[in-house]
Amino acid sequence: MFVPKSKYYNVNRLLLLICGLWPYQESKFKNIQAAFYVTILLSYIILQLTTFIVAECTINLVTKVLSIVLPMFVCILKHGAFFYNNQKMRHLTNLMWYHWTIIQDEQEVAILEKYTKFSKRFTIYMLHFFVLGMFILIIGHMLPIILDVIEPLNSSRPRHFYILMECFIDEEKYFFWLLLHTIVTISTALMMIISVGTMLMSYTFHACAMFKIASYRIGDAMTETSVETSSLQKDCAICQKIINGVRIHRKAIEFVFLNNS
Fold first, then answer.
1. pTM, 2 dp
2. Which span out of 96-100, 125-129, 137-141, 246-250 was modeled with the highest average pLDDT?
3. Which parts of the chain span the membrane according to its record (predicted)?
4. What count of other Cβ atoms lies within 10 Å of the Cβ of residue 56?
């Protein structure tokens, strides 16, 4: 079920498709994506943990290693949970499309569009932070090579990784391959976090819009000033508007409960 307003969620849809988590994606390629992402993250976790074999176990070392290992392990668990049980996300998305179809008043549509644009901007800002972070990561590791080109010394500047890991191979010789592995792994983990996180924020913004619409309907009923109808007809019109507002409020509560369950 799609509506024309779903264009506001195109960025979220693209991110979830990249991670194989879009609830309407039925292709077999989805399973290949999941296997690839889990393999990449697990391989990097193993490289992190092997540092305990060759280095002295200290509080500082444990902190540095776990600061990378734990987030990646959480990414694997979250990705698996969403991958194998995406009915909840499908149900939430269906409800969101349905809400768009029952909103007819121009002011209410404007409210829904306002919050949806907030959601889209939030997603785009998070993508900007992602690109900036990856750019800093790449430049930081490539800085010795860049300086060797700009201002060469008698010998090449040493290359090293800012993220601790042990590969049991010559890091200088295989620097670019290890850097590529690091970039792909960090990108994968961040993309998983951003794709799921921004979609959940989109649901939250949508719920806020529904509560705002309910408030608008009830407030509009309370300011009913028509003088061309009888008092009974006026009271009936006010009650009907309040009932419509309460219905939207109940739909918003149902949506929030489903999102938080």
1. 0.83
2. 125-129
3. 34-55, 61-84, 124-147, 174-203
4. 7
Alpha helices (runs of H) in 87-222, residue ranges in sequence order: 87-102, 106-150, 175-222
What gap in Å lies between CA 78 and CA 197, rounded to an integer? 11
Which pLDDT score is estimated for 209?
Answer: 92
Residue 52 structure tokens: 């305990």
Token pair belonging to 190: 């961040």
Residue labelled with tokens 């080109």: 149
Q: Which residues contact 71 (CB under 8 A, 6 or more apart)?
A: 189
Q: Is 78 exposed, middle or buried (0-12, 13-18, 19+ CB in 10 A)?
A: middle
Confidence of residue 230 (pLDDT cuts 50, 70, 90): low
State the Cα–Cα distance between residues 142 and 160, nearest whole angstrom. Answer: 9
Q: How far apart are the first and last CA of the chain?
A: 23
